User: Fold this.
Amino acid sequence: MKKRILGNGLNVSEIGLGCMGFSHAYGTACDKGEAVRMIRKAADMGYTFFDTAECYTGLCADGTVSYNEEIVGEALAPVRNHVVIATKGGVRHEGDSLAVDSRPATLRASVEGSLKRLGTEVIDLYYQHRIDPNVEPEEVAGTMQELIREGKILHWGISEATEEYLRRADAVCKVAAVQNRYSMMARWHESLFPVLEELNVGYVAFSPLANGFLTDAFGKGSTFEEGDFRRFMPQYQDASYDANEKLLALVRDMAGEKQATPAQISLAWMIRKKPYIVPIPGSRKEHRLIENAGASEVDLTEMDVRALDEALDRMEMSGVFGGHAAK
Ligand SMILES: NC(=O)c1ccc[n+]([C@@H]2O[C@H](COP(=O)([O-])OP(=O)(O)OC[C@H]3O[C@@H](n4cnc5c(N)ncnc54)[C@H](OP(=O)(O)O)[C@@H]3O)[C@@H](O)[C@H]2O)c1
Assistant:
């Protein structure tokens, strides 16, 4: 797969693999052996950028807890020197909300825990998972600076960063990437693009398929198991399929024209837009890992991207999941 640079020299595959879904948010967690096998398959296919987090946990069918970082660490141990592992700390799930805590001691304890679960000596990219309103960005950046000096992490980033926060944090310790939501249904962070260019910060796009909705693989009456967050996401409510008919037709038509799939168009649209955008779609299925990696080869031109953007600008669509509230 083609490569991209995030920030000042973090070399990653153009499409990364979001590993959350093996353990968290999409129903019963995946059997550990199967998840390890899939992540190794992804590495064989050319994915070199793997995303996880301290808080990505869930229950397996046999009642054991799935710790996503452990799975990612075990899967990638044989190729550790050839891949980039990104993880995150500073939030805990509390029911339907996220409890944020970026105090230095908490971040330090989280990094130690992540290093252990990943079975690695250093984390390539460590994100503050959410902004903590009680800790100034300068203090978080200072902690990250120390962690870099101590050799615990190589680069750092911020998830769901805002312009002001990013500027203040970056002034203290160079930020390699933000990791924010981004898809054809969630474009509100596009206003950050000029700032990312000015500061030379990469954009890792999470939920790039709008949690799978843009793949056009679902329809009215699609059901999801207990514990699958899609049950409650606005884009998956029956009325939303009507509201999003034009959106799905747009993606489907472009897919037909380019001999690609809707998922590939959704990913190609963002990687062709800016050279510093790296989507991290998640999937538990081998054929979809192959399909998503194939987005890197889709021949989408600048004009195609512009035409898609113009259509999206004018289009009415349903709401899309925007994440759990932070507190
Ligand atoms: N920083 C943050 O706060 C944050 C928040 C959310 C996510 N993330 C990261 O971003 C990654 C991706 O986000 P996400 O999982 O929320 O959303 P996503 O990548 O937009 O969608 C994933 C869903 O789409 C399905 N899917 C993937 N490729 C497909 C294809 N080609 N055809 C049909 N269905 C397909 C997957 O199902 P199958 O498994 O059945 O294929 C899965 O249910 C996560 O793994 C995580 O690492 C970060």
Remarks:
- DSSP finds eleven helices and 14 strands in the chain.
- The pocket of NAP is lined by residues 18-21, 26, 51, 159, 179, 206-212, 215, 217, 263, 280-285, 288, 291-292 (CB under 6 Å).
- The mean pLDDT is 96.
- The longest strand covers residues 153-159.
